[in-house]
Every structure is written in structure tokens, then in C-alpha cells.
Amino acid sequence: MNRNHRSLLVAIATAGALSLTLGTAGATASHSQGSSAKATKPTVVLVHGAWADGSTWAQVTQQLQKAGYTVDVPPNTLRGVNTDSQNLNAYLKTIKGPIVLVGHSYGGMVITNAANGLSNVKALVYVDAFIPDKGDTVNKLSAAKPGSALAVKDPTTVFNAVPIPGGNGNVDLYVKPSLFPKDFVAGYDSAKSNVLAASQRPLAAGALSEPSGAPAWKNIPSWAVIGTGDKVIPPAGQQDMTKRAGSHVTTIDAPHLSMVTDPDQVTKVITTASSDS
Question: Strand 203-204 relative to strand 171-175: parallel, antiparallel, unpaired?
């Protein structure tokens, strides 16, 4: 390689390094400015439940973002209470600053365990959700009060089961599409309800009998939204769980997926938890 060629390569490399440095500095400054602008508001993390995905939080997410909140909607893996909680805990550890952690339905099991040990989680919000104590299971809490459409003697009347490859007998459970609209979103637009039924994500059956660990609500203040028309987790059972946890309760006329049917009221509770915690 001659001297001129070598000098050209050195110049190109130097320019590239300088460009990368300046670009990184600009990105860092931009991120820092964005963080400062939102320093007064916590990050809201929304956790979906079983037989759902993050899209069920779409309207709440939009309203919170419009109000100036940073909103994260990480996927709930729906593999089991311990696995799902560990995955969420790892995600939460990447967030700087205060967090308001919100869980719907089975997501309540997950946030109750995932928030342990995280001092920046300032509030827990349960939306039509399980609020477990140590040792509680989804099966136990579902059947604690009569009225759950999913707590039946013969689960084959409610669920379609699909074997999990390599799952040692564990199966994925899907709610029968014909039951989903009336049990999860009764009174909601039928066409949209059918879309939710068709796009549901399955829950591993083993999650239903997996015990919860030490509850974070013993150390973190909690809020709860209870839909009086909930046919998945009976409202009476939810009331008992909120009393045990000392939650601030808001009762609304809504089905199980209240953040879909009544996003305004759910958003209001989340913002209240944000300002009061």
C-alpha cells in the first residue's frame, strides 16, 4: 500500500469516527432533553392479561401520551406467573425514573410479583385484575366468589387446547371464540369483539395453578378499577382482594375489558395514581 493510499484511508476513518461521535452526542443530548421535559411524570407501564395483547391498551396509551406521559406496553409472555414476572422485572429495570405499573386481569398476578425489589415503582394499578397474596393461584382467586365464566368444572366447554411442543404435557389455552364477546366485552361492538376473539394470545395452562410469590402491594400503594359487569373475575372477588391490599377503588359500569370499553375512566384512575403516589 503506497503512502497516499494509506493517508486517504486514515482520513476516511478519522472522519467516520468524528461523525459517529458527533451523532452519538447529538442523540444523547436529544434523549436527555426529552427526559428533562417529562421528568415530572412517571413512565406508565401497561401490562395486558391472558387471551389479549398490548393492543387492548391502545386507547389508554393514546390518552396518556396526549397528557405527556411516557408509556411502555411490553408484551406479557403468558408462559407462567414466575416466568412472566421475571421477564417484566427485567424490563422494568431498564427504565430510569419513577414508574406507575398497571396490570389487567392475569397481568395483576404478574405486576404483583415483578415490582418486588424495584424502588422506582411508585404505584400499582389493577384493572379488572387479580391482586394475589403469597400462595394464591388464578384458579383459586377465580373461584373464590361465584360468577366467573371461566371457573367451570369442565374446562373443555370454555377453552380450546393446543399442545405446546416440548412442553411436557402443558398446553396453550384459547377461549372459545363464541364465548369471548359475551364473557370479556359484553355490550361492546360485536364486530370489534369478534376481532379481539380472533386475535387472542393463549395462556399456558400451567399458569392457572402456579402460586404467586410475595406481593409487592404490601410495600407499594395500589389503585383498582372494578367493572361491575365483569364475568371473568367476579366483582365481589375483586372487592375482597382490594380490601386485603388496601387499594383505592373505583367502580365503573363496564365488562372485563374495561380499558377497551371505557378507556376514559381507566385513564383517569392511572393519572390519579400517578399524581397521588
Answer: antiparallel
In one letter, which amino acid is 29?
Answer: A
Note the pLDDT of residue 39: 54
Q: What is the CATH number of domain 39-276?
A: 3.40.50.1820
pLDDT digits (tens, 9 = 90+) for 224-245: 999 999 999 999 999 999 999 9
Helix (H/G/I), strand (E/B), else coil: 253: coil
CA distance 207 to 168: 14
Go through 60-79 and write b for each residue having 16 or more CB atoms within 10 A of its CB, e for each that does not: bbebbeeeebbbbbbebbbb
- Strand 159-163 and strand 121-127: the pairing is unpaired
Burial 88-125, CB ≥16 within 10 A → b, else e: bbeebeebeebbbbbbbbbbbbbbbbbbbebeebbbbb
CA–CA separation, 210 vs 207, rounded Å? 5
Residue 207 near residue 268, CB atoms below 8 Å? no
